[in-house]
Structures are given as structure tokens and as C-alpha cells.
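Pipeline run #58 for the internal structure catalog. This entry was flagged by the ingest filter as a single-chain record with no existing model, so it goes straight to prediction. Upstream metadata was stripped on purpose; only the residue string is passed forward. Reviewer on rotation: M.T. Logging verbosity set to normal.
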Amino acid sequence: MVVIDEERCKGCGLCVEACPHSLLMLSEKEVNKGGYHPVVCVSQSDCTGCALCAEVCPDICIEVYR
């Protein structure tokens, strides 16, 4: 399970590139209080829990639970 703190996310996209299963994407409609399009997980059930997304996040706004 991927938990994203959408208010802290700056939409850099590093986690999107790091996800080996392409489960993360920048939200096209949502905008956080900072004016950024945060990352969202499109399929929690397909997440393997590898945590590569959390490792590359410079703002430490992703937690992964297996």
C-alpha cells in the first residue's frame, strides 16, 4: 500500500519514473495548497511494496506498507 502526503508533494515526478509497475502518475485535476499536481497511485492492489518510489522522493512524502 502506497500512502502519499499530497499536500507535501511538489509533483517532481521522480517516483513516477522509479515505479517499475507504472502505478504512479501526476494528478491532472487535483492541485494541492502549494499549487502543485500531486502524485496519485492508480492501483493500490497491484503495488508490490518495493518502495522505490519512497526512496527517490526528495520531500519524503511517500510511505509504503507491505
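catalog note: Strands lie at 2-4, 24-26, 39-41, 62-64.
catalog note: The CA atoms of residues 8 and 61 lie 6 Å apart.
status: ready for reviewer M.T.
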